[in-house]
Amino acid sequence: MALPRMMFKDFDQPALIEMMVFQYVIGNTDFSIYALHNVRQVQTAAKVFYPIFWDFDISGLVSVPYGKPDPRLGITSARERLYRGPCVTMAEFEPALAIIRQKQAEALALFDLPALEYGSRRDARSSCRSSSGCSTAPRP
C-alpha cells in the first residue's frame, strides 16, 4: 500500500539521489514524490523506502509532441533540464554521476535498436548528449 505525502528525507538517500539524477539526465519533470504522481515507493522488510518512477513520455528523451512541462516549473520545453531532487553536496552527487558516466555508452547504444525510427534515434541521442548531467552535477 502506498504511503501518501512522503518527503525526500523518508527515502534511502543514495537511491533517491540516483533516481533524481536519472530524471534530470533524461529531462523528466513529470513526477511528484509528495503527490505520488508517476512515482510509487517500495518498502523493504527493514522499513527502508525506495522511489520507483515510471511514465517518461513528458521527458526530453522521449520528446512527444504533446510533451509540455508544467508551467509552474519555469521551463518551457521538456528538453530543458530542471533538477527536482533534494539539495545535496557535490560529494553526495558523485556516486550517482559515476553510475551515469559508467553506463552512458551502453545507454547511447540502445538508440541503435531497429525498432526506433531514424528521427527518434537522432532526437534521443541529441537529448542525452545535451544533458550536462552525463558529466557534471545538476544545478539545483
List the helices and strands and how they pair.
Layout lengths: L12 H14 L12 E5 L5 E5 L36 H20 L8 H12 L11
Antiparallel strand pairs: 1-2
Describe this protein with a few key phrases.
two-stranded antiparallel sheet, 140 residues, mainly alpha, globular, 3 helices
Description:
The protein is mainly alpha-helical. It has one domain. Strands 1-2 form a two-stranded antiparallel ribbon. Helix 1 crosses helix 2. The longest helix has 20 residues. The chain is globular and about 45 Å long.
Quick overview of this protein structure:
The chain is mainly α. It contains three helices and two strands.
Radius of gyration: 15 Å
Order of helices and strands: HEEHH
**What global shape is seen?**
globular
Q: How many H/I helices?
A: 3
Q: Considering DSSP H and I runs of 4 or more, what fraction of the residues is helical?
A: 25-40%
Number of domains: 1
> Could you report the average pLDDT, rounded to the nearest whole number?
83
Could you tell me the number of beta strands? 2
State the end-to-end CA separation: 31 Å
Q: Strand order across the biggest sheet?
A: 1-2
Query: Low-confidence parts, pLDDT < 50 over ≥5 residues?
Result: 132-136
How does the helix and strand content classify structurally?
mainly alpha
What amount of the residues lies in strands?
Answer: 5-15%
Report the biggest beta sheet as strand number plus sense, adding barrel if it closes. Answer: 2 strands, antiparallel
